[in-house]
Amino acid sequence: MKKLFFPFVAIMFTITSCSQFTSKKEYDAVKAENDSLRMVQEQVEQEMNQYMSAINSVQENLETIKQSEKILTMKKMSKDLSASDIEQINKDLKDLADLLKKNKEELQTLRQRVKNSSFKISELQKTVDMLTQNLQEETNKVMQLTAELEKKNVLIDSMSIQIAEQADNIKQLEDQSEAQTSKMQEQDEALNTAWYAFGSRKELKEQNIINRKGAFAPQRVLESDFNKDYFVKIDIRNTQEIPLFSSRAKILTNHPKSSYTLEKNDKNLVLVIVDYKAFWSVSRYLVVEVD
Fold it and tell me: What is the pLDDT of residue 114?
């Protein structure tokens, strides 16, 4: 049986030289943040191993359900069924109902663990949704098979009721899956949101985006109550280029130099993000001073 494996992309962290930061304190803070992210990566990998065990168990149960369905389908095609045949069919259907119940419970447990996890992994949620859908499909097949056997007066009444109850329970699980998927999409959008703004020194000062306390003090960026409405909201996965509409530009926020380039388009500069994960790893706000 084919198992599911997740292509876990290692989180890459870039610690740049102190020259990219205004102080050693700032550099140490970024380094500490990257060390913390490495620990998060290890925790994610541990959780993924636990999830894989649960997912493979559900898959194995689904495979058993499919094989049992095939056997029952062949049996129902028989014209003459003995008393022992009928007894075996009812036993097989009971085993199927128990497996459906077991899979539903395992999926509920897995879904709850994913929901409560500190780490939101969209591919994992998609896999749980896919398994829930597969379980619903197999349940529908069992329901159809049950109806056909009822027509042949093969089933005892309690068995039909038991199968129907499992079908209702799995439908509820599918509804929960859709609701959780919607929530995951909202969280995914939030995790991939950033903001950028560019303007002249005067414009940025007017919006409290940059300020200087004293004639000889260093310029500070995004320190006071700046105007957030001045910024453009973007999805970092879909934003590779930002036109700056100026021939001169200076990036004021901290972003690894290897993650972007400033390229000329006619006479104006365009900020080209070559590695969006690295670019936005230090700050989700981008401020560019232009002339």
Answer: 77
Do the domain assignments include residue 8?
no
202 and 61 in a single domain? The answer is no
Closest CA to 154 of 72, 71, 62, 34: 72
Q: Which of 46, 43, 53 is nearest to 5 (CA)?
A: 53
13 within a domain of the structure (yes/no): no
Q: Is residue 168 part of a domain?
A: yes
Among residues 135, 157, 191, the one where a domain terminates is 191
94 in any annotated domain: yes
How many angstroms separate the CA atoms of 291 and 24, rounded? 29
d(CA 19, CA 27): 9
Task: For Cα atoms 172, 178, 184, give the angle at the middle one, nearest 5 degrees.
Answer: 135
Residues 41 and 12: beta-carbon distance below 8 Å:
no
Whether 133 contacts 174, CB under 8 Å? yes
Q: What is the distance between the alpha carbons of residues 11 and 31, in angstroms, rounded to a whole number?
A: 15
Can you give the pLDDT at residue 270? 95
Q: Kind and range of the H or E element at 193? A: strand 193-199
Distance CA 198, CA 221 (A): 12
| pLDDT beneath 70: ranges in the chain | 1-36, 40, 78-79, 81, 118-122, 152-184, 213-217
Q: Which residue range is the domain that position 116 belongs to? A: 18-191
